[in-house]
Amino acid sequence: MPSCAERGVLGILHGAIGTIQATETVKLILGIGEPLIGRLLLYDALGMSFREMKLRKDPNCPVCGENPTVTELIDYQEFCGIPQASAAEEENGVPEITVTELKSKLDKGEDVNVLDVREPHEYEVANIGVKLIPLGELPQRVAELDQEEYFVVHCKTGARSARAVRLLQDAGFQNVYNVKGGITAWSEEIDPSVPKY
Known about the structure:
single chain, about 15% strand, alpha/beta, 9 helices
């Protein structure tokens, strides 16, 4: 599942709900007003309506019940599928190349196969004119690629392409590198005419 950064979010919803949460926090800190404790506020942005439901405390709740079993926060990044830092990926055997290094190789005319593993709708928004094989299709399409050739793989920010590099390595590819920062870094550092999304 793509992260919020990759899939996109409707920012105005975060603004509306965030303002309500901030208000509730201030009320609790100052001990004023009537906080939403024991109530669930439902927000319908399309209908521009709010609805309130009263909730009873569940004595068997794993967080707030009489015998809680959940006593610490989850790893939010892991839960949402947000990749860890590239250093961790390098430790896991994913070699990387910067967009500057890639541009230099292309300018010198080196034999580099650049592979884009984003989705077709992303490719339509921004691309650098290279072969597209979405990450989800890569296992079935590995045979289209020559293991003896040099491959550089990119996506939006480098997370999916790191997974693609691992997949290709497992399939026997020796010369395959992840583009650190993906097409976003390409747009920021090499070619600002490539749209950022």
